[in-house]
Structures are given as C-alpha cells and as structure tokens.
Amino acid sequence: xxxxxxxxxxGTLIQVKALLNQGANKNARDASGxxxxxxxxxxxxxxxVQELIKRGARVNSRTANGVTPLHLASLESHSRVVHGLMxxxxxxxxxxxxxxxxxxxxxxxxxxNALKTSRAATKWLxxxxxxxxxxxxxxxxxxxxxxxxxxxxxxxxxFVTVKKNSG
Length: 167
Prior knowledge:
By secondary structure, the protein is mainly alpha-helical.
C-alpha cells in the first residue's frame, strides 16, 4: 500500500494533508483497486473523506468489482461518512458486480447506524426522483407547448414524487 492509502485508513488528517501537499495522487489505486477515499470511507474517517473530496478525489470511483467508497461506508455503517459522500455527489444506486448498491449494503446491517445510513440513502433517492421529475416537466419541449408556469410544473413534480414514494 502507498503511504497515502495507509494515511487515509490509519493515519491522521495532518498526515493526509502533508502527503497531498507533497504531490501524492488523491486518486491512486492500490493492489485491490481502492483509492485513498475508499480507505477513508471504509475506516469511517469523515475529516479525511472531506479533505480528499475537497482536493478533488473522485467520489464515485469504482474498483474492478464495482465497489465505491459509498458501498464501503454503508457496509460498515458509518452514517456520517455516508451522508458526507452523498452530499458530495456519491450515488447510492451504483451497483457492484454482484448487483448490490450502497443502499442494499446499508440494509444488510441491523444496528442503529445502519438505520441512519439507510434513511440518508432513502432521502437522497427521494431528492433525485424529484429533480428528475422537475427536469422532465421543465423540458423546453413541454414548456413551449403548454401554458403551464414553472411553479405549477414544480408542484406537479412534487405531487408525482410524493405519489411514487407513498405507493
């Protein structure tokens, strides 16, 4: 393992910052295909995860098996790391080669942190559905052919999202 991988998993934020300042590759892969972000997420190191993201680490980077940092944080029930990754754009619906998403990984565990992790993924999914519905309804093709205002269309999008989530 490279020093940046060790520092991300076992070290401190100061060590990670020092290595990055010296030119360590924030997206370097180890023999398993893990990036420093994979290691930090797996270990539950929120401050290191945030620093790597701030420095431009790829949030949705995948190993050869399709595992993302979000998969690892979900599997280990690191709910604060999961929330931080999703806030930075990690997608909980990406599937690994076995067909499991980070959302599935969160449901494998039965402890309290897993419940928080699952709730965070559900909240993200609802927001994504709402944005998708708004994009579809706000398409120029539809806006040009109807007298609907943007606020009316947003109300319809919220209704569609609520209906999908409740039934």
